[in-house]
Design brief:
The chain is mainly α. The chain has three domains: 123 residues, Winged helix-like DNA-binding domain superfamily/Winged helix DNA-binding domain (Arc Repressor Mutant, subunit A, Orthogonal Bundle), CATH 1.10.10; 80 residues; 113 residues. The chain contains 13 helices and eight strands. It has a two-stranded antiparallel sheet. A two-stranded antiparallel sheet has the order 2-3. It has a two-stranded antiparallel ribbon with strand order 4-5. The two termini are 36 Å apart. The relative contact order is 0.09.
Length: 332
């Protein structure tokens, strides 16, 4: 599961008005739809295979309820679903997933939903409370995107809020939610007053998606640097023992390179390390974008330094072979 996910604002507004067999979708369906986004690829909207038991545990319901809500959402056109007959795991393809990246005026816009915010939403069992919170979230995020100020305040009158909710939801229901619901007081900075007759939807700082996204990027960047630093230390030590012809110590670091980094042959070391570095970095970059050009260049210079160390190993090995002192790795 990801630590944050983008959820389409048009899809949220659609789902709270959607009916299945003449009944509006319940809280479990709405929460399930949001939850699935945390397993979806950010570019395709296709999830990894999911176990229904895990979904049921997250939604605090049974597997039968999850299965019936999947059927409702699929029938309403929110996603396609397929099941692996062997593992009985489900894979979802969210419809029109990439449209959320369009400008707001062209049907785009999305909520950067953090895992902490998801936990708050999953606890809301009342469908009317969930609808009100989601409507306020959509307005708060839209206002922030259209404003130059960070965490801008979205002010909605009751009439505007009710216009985005099903017709049977009366003003008294909304006022009761705003007065007593813990979710409203937790997710938003409490700026609602009855006298002013409007709701100020300002997201609490701890649920800010941009902050979480930058934190995830920084952690992924630090992990890449840490990995390459440790590997460079191993290569430096190996270089030293290789040059000094210390067989026992060299064999020890040969084993480290083989078991921890998957390098089995010194002859193929530069190519194998290049492939290994590339695969590892692409995996990390799949969950991050380097925050700045300065950090990007810093990482590039660091990798070039590691590549230089790798080249030393190959050249030193060739030199030792010519002297009859080098011993190649066993490719097996």
């Amino acid at each position: 599961m990801k630590r944050f996910a983008n959820v389409s604002i048009p899809s949220i507004k659609k789902i709270i008005h959607t009916s299945f067999e003449k009944q509006l979708l319940k809280s479990c369906s709405v929460r399930l739809f949001i939850l699935i986004h945390f397993y979806a690829n950010a570019n395709t909207g296709i999830t990894s295979p999911l176990d229904l038991e895990d979904l049921a545990q997250a939604l605090d319901c049974n597997i039968k309820t999850v299965r019936s809500n999947i059927l409702r959402l699929e029938s309403c056109g929110f996603f396609d679903v397929s099941m692996d007959p062997v593992t009985e795991e489900y894979t979802f393809t969210i419809h029109d997933y990439t449209k959320m990246y369009n400008p707001i005026g062209l049907g785009g816009g999305y909520i950067q939903c953090t895992y902490d915010l998801l936990e708050q939403l999953l606890q809301i069992k009342s469908i009317n409370e969930l609808r009100v919170i989601l409507m306020l979230l959509c307005e708060a995020i839209t206002t922030e995107l259209q404003s130059s100020a960070k965490l801008a305040v979205a002010k909605l009158t009751f009439k505007e809020l009710l216009a985005g909710l099903p017709k049977y939801v009366k003003p008294g229901v909304v006022k009761q939610i705003l007065d007593h619901a813990n979710s409203f007081k937790t997710i938003f900075k409490e700026e609602y007053t009855r006298k002013k007759r409007y709701i100020a939807a300002k997201l609490n700082d701890c649920f800010n998606g941009a902050t979480t996204k930058n934190q995830v990027r920084q952690e992924a960047y630090s992990e890449i640097v840490s990995f390459t630093t440790e590997m460079d230390d191993v290569i430096r030590t190996f270089n030293t023992y290789l040059f000094e012809d210390k067989l026992r110590e060299r064999m020890q670091y040969e084993e480290i390179l083989k078991t921890e980094y998957g390098i089995a042959s010194i002859r193929h070391l530069p190519w194998m390390l290049s492939i290994y570095f590339l695969s590892m970095i692409l995996k990390k970059l799949s969950i991050m974008i380097l925050p700045s050009w300065h950090r990007t260049m810093k990482l590039v210079r660091f990798l070039m330094h590691c590549t230089f160390s790798i080249t030393i190993i190959s050249s030193q090995n060739s030199m030792m072979q010519r002297k009859g002192l080098a011993r190649s790795f066993d490719p097996s």
